[in-house]
Design goal:
By secondary structure, the chain is mainly α. 57% of the residues lie in helices and 0% in strands.
């Protein structure tokens, strides 16, 4: 999906490491898997305005950190704004200004450079991991 968005639709895609504790990750994963099982038993139509992937992730995130993300904010249902909300809430790296964080975690250049490489997903993460190692401790 990343390659489709970056190489064919020419969108920027950001791969942010989240600042979740292991317990929060476990809670979110269980919650998402529970939701997937419900959808398997009782499918429903996608609703890009009221029940989209960004909004649903916010619901799961609030199960990990109750009340952390307000449901009524535009950033909660508009994917192009959600990273700014996560930045201001401290869910992603806040060590640099927001615009610089977007530059650092934009995987579009790597996805385009290695689009035919079967290890493209590894290369996207390598660049981010190298940045994280060189800028933490």
């Amino acid at each position: 999906f990343i390659l489709r968005r970056t190489n064919y639709q020419e969108h920027d895609v950001y791969l942010y490491p989240l600042t979740l504790t292991p317990a929060e990750v476990k809670t979110m994963l269980r919650d998402i898997l529970h939701e997937a099982n419900i959808l398997h038993e009782k499918p429903r139509f996608y609703n890009s305005a009221l029940c989209n992937c960004t909004g649903l992730l916010g619901v799961h995130a609030n199960h990990a950190r109750p009340g952390a993300l307000p449901w009524w904010r535009p950033e909660q249902v508009m994917p192009g704004l959600s990273d700014r909300l996560l930045y201001h809430k401290g869910w992603i790296d806040t060590t640099l200004p927001f615009e610089r964080i977007r530059e650092v975690y934009n995987v579009r250049p790597v996805a385009q450079r290695y689009k035919d490489d079967p290890e493209v997903s590894v290369k996207m993460r390598e660049g981010l991991n190298n940045y994280l190692r060189s800028n933490t401790g």
